[in-house]
Design brief:
Protein LURP-one-related 15, Tubby-like_C, Porin, LOR, mainly beta, disordered N terminus, LOR_sf, globular, 1 helix, 12-stranded antiparallel beta barrel
Length: 193
């Protein structure tokens, strides 16, 4: 991600998850083949960074839930999506909460019909509906996405999905820019699946 302007630390979830200012951070997000869309997040040295757990969906609560935990099993985020809505909207809440005051961000499609994926991400303190805080732009044919600040060309993360087979696990190879909150990027990635 050379030739990008240097960002000041951008903590969405927590400053402790901001990549060092000197270099990007590379993460590997591996989808576990358990039938529940669980994920393991490691660095390039195979150190556990995060786990994402997905409980089974029931008819009582027609919502999909994913929980992001740190390496010590502390809950960081609760990601929630209604299965009845056509807008592919995810909401992220602190910890295991669903309370409106714990909302961190909302991620949704910019339009229903898309040839290329474009997702708008609005932070909880963004009360305008005209402007998003981040965009995720993707090419489904190449299984790749890029995360930008708002609608600018300021790139903060690159995501490449390596397709698996029945015996090989799917992986997302993620590069997060210096000073960017990598927990936030991981939360976006696990909503792409």
């Amino acid at each position: 991600m050379a030739n990008q302007p240097q960002l000041s630390a951008t903590a969405i979830i927590s400053p402790q998850y901001c990549a060092p200012a000197t270099h990007p951070i590379d993460l590997i997000i591996t989808k576990e083949w358990t039938g529940r869309n669980n994920f393991t997040v490691t660095d390039t040295n195979n150190n556990l960074i995060f786990k994402v757990k997905t409980p089974l969906v029931t008819m009582v609560t027609p919502r999909q839930h994913r929980f992001l935990f740190d390496a010590n099993r502390n809950p960081i985020l609760h990601l929630r999506r209604s299965l009845l809505a056509a807008d592919d909207k995810w909401k992220a809440f602190r910890g295991e909460s669903e309370a409106p005051q714990d909302l961190v961000f909302t991620r949704e499609r910019s339009s229903f019909m898309q040839l290329r994926t474009k997702l708008n991400v609005s932070l909880a303190n963004n009360t305008t509906t005209q402007a998003c805080d981040f965009t995720v732009r993707g090419n489904l044919f190449q299984n790749s996405w890029k995360v930008y600040i708002a609608n600018s060309d300021n790139l903060v993360a690159k995501i490449k999905k390596e397709l698996g087979t029945m015996f090989i696990t799917e992986k997302f190879m993620v590069t997060v820019s210096p000073n960017m909150d990598y927990a936030f990027i991981v939360a976006l990635v696990v909503t792409l699946d």
